[in-house]
Each structure stands twice: as C-alpha cells, then as structure tokens.
C-alpha cells in the first residue's frame, strides 16, 4: 500500500493524488486503505516517514560500510555516493521528500525538517572527524563545521534534483561533483586559507 502511495504522490503530487487511485494501484479496496490509515494526510505522513528512514539508512550504511578505519573524507564520499544512488533509484520517494512534503504545510514540512537535521548532524560528525584527522588539533570552530554541513547537505539536495533530471549522470559522478566543490574549500578552511573579502 505504501509503495503505491509513494508512487502516486511522487508522480502526481499530494493534491492531485486520490485515495481511489492509490487503492487501485495497491490492489486493495479504498475502505481497506482507510482502515489502516484514517486519512490522506496520515497516508502521506506514513510515506514521508518511510522514505526518510530509508534515505538515512542508505546514507549511514554507505558511510559506515567496509573498514571503519577509513579516513573521514572517504566515508563522506561513500555516504554521498549512497545518497545519490538512493535518490536516483527511488525518484518517487525523493519527490515525496524533496518536493511534495516541503510544499504542503507544516505537518509534512516538520517531518522533512527532522530528516534533514539527522543527516546534517551525521555530516557534521564526518566533517569534524576529517578536521581532526587532517590537523591533529584543528582550530576549526564548531560553528564553522555546522555551517559547512548545512551547506553540503543543501548542495546535495539540489544536485540530486539535477542529477535525477539529467540523463546519464551517475551517483558517483554527482558525488564527485560535490566532493570537488566542497572538499577543496574545506581543506582551505582547515589550513587557514578560507576565502575572505579582505584578500
């Protein structure tokens, strides 16, 4: 039922999707849909929660896969690649999270905000670890790390939309684009060579 709902919401949008259409696609009766979830709003919320959990699990599994002694930049690369692989492989789920949920009111937007905060916290940890690995006692402030994580996650969200709509863009290509954009800048900041308007 949730598969059918994600597909319908992702392709038609929250407003245009009907419970009749979802029930038909799921191969169940409309009363059965209402038996499990009392309203269209509850069904959409369940879809958001499921897709958010799947995305977070994919990113964490990618970043934590293999040798735990891998440098933080390699774990970030693996997490980004997993993110882009997941969003490309689940375009309807990504549409539900990135387009539909953000534009249809507070109950849905709050769910996506919680997802984003969880991913930002995870990326913040990876960037902080990278700073510690690259510079035994880095001077990079917690605020700078948090800001970089916010920027990186925002860029990843935007890039996923572009990659999904651009034929032939692979998950690794999208991840490499973001790493090339962000990692050099992070390295400069950690080395004390961050951009300044006074230069």
TrEMBL record:
Tagged with keyword Methyltransferase: no
Entry keyword set: DNA-binding, Transcription, Transcription regulation
Domain of life: Bacteria
Keyword Transcription assigned: yes
Domain HTH tetR-type span(s) in chain numbering: 1-55
DNA-binding region: 18-37
Organism this protein belongs to: Streptomyces coeruleoprunus
InterPro entries, A to Z: DesT_TetR_C, Homeodomain-like_sf, HTH-type_TetR-like_transc_reg, HTH_TetR, Tet_transcr_reg_TetR-rel_C_sf
Short name of one Pfam family: TetR_N
Organismal lineage: Bacteria, Bacillati, Actinomycetota, Actinomycetes, Kitasatosporales
Name of the protein described by the UniProt record: TetR/AcrR family transcriptional regulator
């Amino acid at each position: 039922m949730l598969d059918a709902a994600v597909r319908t919401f992702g392709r038609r949008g929250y407003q245009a999707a009907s419970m009749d259409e979802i029930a038909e696609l799921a191969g169940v009766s409309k009363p059965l849909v209402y038996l499990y979830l009392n309203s269209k709003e509850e069904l959409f919320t369940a879809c958001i929660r499921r897709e958010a959990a799947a995305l977070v699990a994919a990113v964490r599994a990618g970043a934590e896969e293999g040798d735990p002694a891998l440098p933080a930049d390699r774990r970030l690369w693996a997490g980004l690649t997993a993110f882009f692989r997941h969003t490309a492989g689940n375009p309807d789920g990504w549409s539900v999270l990135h387009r539909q949920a953000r534009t249809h009111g507070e109950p849905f937007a709050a769910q996506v905000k919680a997802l984003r905060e969880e991913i930002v916290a995870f990326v913040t940890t990876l960037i902080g670890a990278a700073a510690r690995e690259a510079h035994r006692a880095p001077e990079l402030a917690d605020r700078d790390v948090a800001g970089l994580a916010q920027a990186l996650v925002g860029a990843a969200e935007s890039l996923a939309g572009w990659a999904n709509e651009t034929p032939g863009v692979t998950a690794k290509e999208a991840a490499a684009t973001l790493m090339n954009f962000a990692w050099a800048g992070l390295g400069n900041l950690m080395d004390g060579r961050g951009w300044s308007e006074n230069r």
